[in-house]
Design a protein that fits this description.
368 residues; mainly beta; ten-stranded mixed sheet; nine-stranded antiparallel sheet; 8 helices; flat
Length: 368
């Protein structure tokens, strides 16, 4: 992974925009899979950040950034200093900006970072607009530099991993074993578990090339070392941000993620009766999703589903395991309840949508 200093502003941090990959950034695999904050209820970002200075590492697919971030006593501004390779070098850039901090988010005019987890050595945050953009706040420069200088070859050498691949449409299971010289790997593909009965195919001794930041397979596909979490490593395809690999040392954790909530499975070829709620007003919708999840038909109703819709139209969409977006807005999964899926707007946190399979249940909630 290329390492370079760059201005760390949320407006820049979120530039990658519309394309998402379903890879969160925390030690809890369930929270990560749903891209929602599921940290301990006692963790309040405000108390963690107030009058504090952190040594931060930003991860994206292309590069890493090394920063020192200081917060004021009122959490109304932050100062961000960018460094090149280590904290002993002169500051490359320095920016002070206005922010708003809640219990789980940092927001400026460009967007938001959301707290995913508090680990032993760092706070883990992720961009709400693009989960490929991750940030870790370390208390010391030594810890930040140690993470910044992680080597993929050291992480993989002579090890076996339980791997979950996540692409634009589904997840797949693999077991991958690396040699000590990292010149080849053994790859076994599974269907729904790591049991011998679910083994689909095996390829042993396939040539690979591994550097400190990249893995290239025999077909020429390049995977970049994106980040390391408590339970797994994440590699992302250099050609497609929707193709990611999570390398777990634990079979149980890999299967936990593999079997966790996947919005694509819930929506594919389905019809939902949805109620939007911004805290003041509610509105009735019907969404019909295509099998390939490339588009939906939206119908809007005034008071009930018995009359004809006031508006109806088709629109192109993008769906990942935890997000749904069209050309003008994006929703992320907040929770999966017994009767509905709860989604929240990324731009307006007060705007929620409940997706019901039953028009009667949607209508009941609408009238409450």
């Amino acid at each position: 992974m290329q390492k370079k200093a760059k201005v760390f502003l949320l407006s820049l941090f979120l530039l990658s925009g519309f394309l998402f990959v379903g890879c969160g950034s925390g030690g809890s695999t369930t929270a990560d899979a749903n891209s929602t904050v599921d940290v301990n209820a006692t963790v309040d970002l405000r108390s963690e950040l107030k009058e504090s200075t952190f040594y931060a590492v930003q991860d994206d697919v292309q590069s890493k950034g090394l920063y020192k971030v200081s917060f004021d006593a009122n959490l109304t501004s932050w100062n961000i200093q960018a460094y090149d390779n280590n904290y002993a070098t002169p500051i490359q850039e320095s920016v002070t900006g206005d922010i708003n901090v809640t219990a789980d988010t940092i927001t400026d005019a460009g967007g938001s970072l959301q707290l995913v987890s508090k680990e032993a050595n760092y706070l883990s945050l992720v961009s709400t607009a693009n989960p490929l953009m991750k940030l870790k706040f370390f208390a010391t420069s030594a810890l930040a530099e140690a993470y910044y200088n992680l080597s993929l070859s050291d992480e993989l050498k002579a090890k076996e991993f339980f791997v979950v691949q996540n692409n634009a449409s589904n997840r797949s299971l693999y077991k991958i074993k690396f040699t000590d010289v990292l010149t080849q790997w053994d790859v076994t593909t599974y269907s729904t578990s790591y049991a011998d009965a679910d083994r689909l195919s095996s390829n042993y001794g396939t040539p690979i090339t591994v550097t400190d930041s990249n893995l290239t397979d025999s077909g020429g596909s390049v995977f970049r070392f994106q980040n390391k979490e408590v339970d797994y490593l994440t590699l992302v395809s250099a050609n497609s941000s929707t193709l990611a690999l999570k390398f777990y040392a634990s079979e149980a954790l890999a299967l936990e993620y593999f079997n966790s909530f996947d919005l694509r499975k819930e929506l594919r070829s389905q019809t939902f009766y949805a109620v939007s709620n911004n805290g003041t007003n509610k509105a009735l919708f019907k969404f019909v999703f295509t099998e390939d999840l490339s588009s939906w038909n939206i119908s809007i109703y005034t008071g009930d589903y018995l009359s004809a819709p006031t508006q109806s139209a088709d629109a192109q969409i993008a769906v990942t395991e935890n997000m749904l977006a069209d050309s003008s807005s994006s929703l992320k999964v907040a929770s999966k309840e017994s009767d509905y899926i709860n989604l929240v707007s990324i731009k307006e946190s007060s705007l929620t949508f409940r997706f019901y399979a039953s028009s009667e249940l949607a209508q009941t909630y609408f009238k409450e």
